[in-house]
Amino acid sequence: SEFFNEQVSRIINPPDDPVLLGRQILDSGAYPCATCHVLDDLGWTGNIGPSLNLIGSQDRINRRLSATGSASMEEYLIASIRHPGDYLVPGYGNLMPQFNPEPNQPNYMPDSDLEAIVAYLLSQTGE
Fold first, then answer.
1. What local confidence, expressed as pLDDT, does residue 24 receive?
2. Which of 6, 28, 47, 117 has its CA 20 to 30 A from that of 36?
3. Element (H or E) spanning 72, and its range?
4. What are phi and psi of 105, to 5 degrees?
């Protein structure tokens, strides 16, 4: 009989679409985002950090870019993950861990994971 394990298959054959890959990475629990954030698409119910529902909607994008001066929502989200204390959403404290790009640093998150996660978050438009 042939061995097949869905979890192993997803790791060995990741999706080509960065949005699907980002969703898979976040859904895997590889990073503790669900502990603090709400994101209905993944069933997250955290209440310590800002909600990620509709983070890719034009209204949320306009508000974040206006508040932060970031050039794009991609830039804002990358900065929020790499340097979460640089801009705090009003009403939230500086509690998010910083995810670092180098394997020898704590909370390592490779750029490839970061890019896929940002692509997925930007797909959360409510449409």
1. 94
2. 6
3. none
4. -100, 155
Q: Which amino acid is at 127?
A: E
10 Å CB burial of residue 13 (0-12, 13-18, 19+) is: exposed
Contact 89, 60 (CB under 8 A): no
* Encoded amino acid at 11, one letter: I
Do residues 95 and 63 make contact, with C-beta atoms less than 8 angstroms apart?
A: no
Is the pLDDT score of 10 beyond 70?
Answer: no
Give 98-120 pLDDT, tens digit per residue.
999 999 999 999 999 999 999 99
Q: Which helix (H) or strand (E) holds 44?
A: strand 44-45
Residue 3: predicted pLDDT: 66
Q: How confident is the model at residue 9 (pLDDT cuts 50, 70, 90)?
A: low
DSSP assignment of 1-52, as one string?
-----HHHHHHHS--SSHHHHHHHHHHHTSSGGGGT-EEGGGTEE--SS---
d(CA 127, CA 40) in angstroms, rounded, equals 14
Cα–Cα distance between 78 and 16 in angstroms, integer?
Answer: 21
**Identity of residue 108:** Y
Task: For the beta carbon of residue 72, count every other beta carbon within 10 angstroms.
Answer: 11
